[in-house]
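Lecture 7 notes: from sequence to structure.
We start with the chain below.
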Amino acid sequence: MNRHKAIILAVAVSASGTLSAAGVNAQTFQGYRCADGTQFIVAFYEDDKRAFMQIDGGAIPLAKRLTLSGARYSGAGITLKIGKTGTTVKHLKRPVTACESS
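Predicted structure tokens for the same chain:
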């Protein structure tokens, strides 16, 4: 969640005390562990085509890229591929590594 959405959500919760289903975007979070020891969390929001990855202590938005099958996201030197055969990540100058959801 970017900083502006977090602030708006916090203000809405404190002002109303409750949240309505229409006032919050649906979201999905998934944690991964990779063969090379890398760990990260990816968040997907209903109204946003990007994936938001938390890796190495920072949050990085990854733009959705064109692919023939599965999903591919990239940005800031990171490429995340999610397909039927599994998930891989290429992080900066490290080689591509296989990852599993945790």
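Points to note: The chain has one helix and eight strands. The longest helix spans residues 3-16.
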